[in-house]
Design goal:
The chain contains nine helices and 21 strands. With 374 residues, it is of the alpha/beta class. It has two domains: 2-47 and 152-227 and 328-373, FAD/NAD(P)-binding domain (3-Layer(bba) Sandwich), CATH 3.50.50; 92-144 and 230-320, 2-Layer Sandwich (D-Amino Acid Oxidase, Chain A, domain 2). The strands form four sheets. Strands 1, 2, 9, 10, 11, 12, 13, 20 and 21 form a nine-stranded mixed beta sheet that branches. Strands 14, 16, 17, 18 and 19 form a five-stranded antiparallel beta sheet that branches. Helix 2 crosses helix 9.
Length: 374
């Protein structure tokens, strides 16, 4: 193992959140090194989502999810346009298939308004049929500011942007552990082809599914400050043939997620998901026997779905801070005020709308960690 060398800022995790931090801190004039344990960036949560730019409809007013989603949405649209990242503001329908689901839509509209989302439009059954002839529903809400984005292209743009401002990205470089130093900063042990020890002044833990593991590996971080972690796997099926949809279609939300919904990729391919399957750890295997539930859930609003039209797609795992059956948790962005370790920022439970909120999360976290340093 090489002798310890000095670095300024280390960001752990090469998904969209870590890359957004690397860019933000580098733009702020810091010397940034990003560590990613995998051989390629963004192999987990960032590349296994619906790739939706969310409007900010679902999240508790005043929560970090609400605030950062709404702020991040505009930042993301602007960044994508400026950096030629393919995206499309397709819009989204949230539909009630029975009259007794209409109050849920009314609550969503009220929540959205509290969050500063004022562009939702009420639709009657005839309006829905005109916009999406394949969808059957009694009422709906149209969200025109919801869209989709190429998450891989976004991560590539963030990496280029960070590198242009002097950041270094090291893949196949897992953080094995470390400790907070008495005089400030951290000593870290890094694995990979050439294991090494480094010292750094500031440390951002954006390790996603492994954020709690990273925090536990750092001596000096109070164990009581590290929240429990739960994993919720979502399966996605793709639709064989040409998509009948021109925008995203969501049912009313369900516990643990937003229900089995229709999203489109930038090529127009329709996919359905995710469902919610609680796990003990990270396991991306596509579980057999899930088709029946998908057909049943989808046919509630898309009765024309033909048997055999669904093809197994991919899976993704959401890092949860609350167990099955509990109320949805907020993002947890912990700085020194929360854990007492100067120069450390831990990010936990960054699930949806993390992609939408990524630039706003990095903006907030950069102000927190640099402000606390000064």
């Amino acid at each position: 193992m090489n002798d310890a060398s000095d670095l300024d800022v280390v960001v752990v995790g090469g998904g969209v959140i870590g890359l957004a931090f690397a860019r933000s801190l580098a733009v702020a004039g810091r010397e940034v090194t990003l560590l990613e344990s995998e051989a390629r960036l963004g192999q987990h949560t960032s590349s296994r989502s619906s790739e939706v730019i969310h409007a900010g409809i679902y999240y508790a007013p005043g929560s970090l999810k609400a605030r950062l989603c709404v702020a991040g949405k505009q930042l993301l649209y602007d960044y994508a346009a400026k950096n030629h990242v393919e995206h499309r503001p397709l819009g989204k329908l949230i539909v009630a298939v029975r009259d007794d689901e209409t109050p849920a839509l009314e609550q969503l509209q009220a929540t959205a308004a509290h969050n500063g989302v004022h562009d939702l439009q009420w639709l009657e059954a005839s309006d829905i049929a005109a916009l999406e002839p394949s969808v059957k529903a009694v009422r709906g809400l149209l969200s025109p500011s919801t869209g989709i984005i190429d998450s891989h292209a976004l991560m590539s743009a963030l990496r280029r942007d960070a590198a242009a401002h002097g950041a270094t990205v090291a893949t196949s470089s897992p953080l094995l552990g470390g400790r907070a130093l008495d005089k400030g900063g951290f000593e870290l042990s890094i694995g990979g082809a050439e294991p090494s020890r480094v010292r750094c002044r500031l440390l951002v833990n954006a390790a996603g599914l492994w954020a709690q593991n990273i925090a536990r590996s750092l001596r000096g971080v109070p164990p009581g400050s590290i929240p429990p972690q739960y994993f919720a796997k979502g399966h996605y099926f793709t639709l064989a043939g040409r998509s009948p949809f021109s925008r995203l279609v969501y049912p009313v939300p369900e516990p643990g997620g937003l229900g089995v919904h229709v999203t489109l990729d930038l090529a127009g391919q329709a996919r359905f998901g995710p469902d919610v399957a609680w796990l003990e750890g990270v396991d991306y295997r596509f579980e057999a026997g899930r088709e029946a539930r998908f057909y049943s859930a989808i046919r509630r609003y898309f009765p024309g779905l033909q048997s055999g039209a669904l093809r197994p797609g991919h899976t993704g795992i959401r890092p949860k801070l609350a167990p099955a059956g509990a109320s949805a948790s907020d993002f947890s962005i912990q700085g020194p005020r929360e854990h007492g370790v100067p120069g450390l920022l831990n990010l936990y439970g960054i699930e949806s709308p993390g992609l939408t909120a990524a630039l706003a999360i990095a903006q907030l976290g950069t102000l927190e960690i640099l402000g606390r340093e000064s």
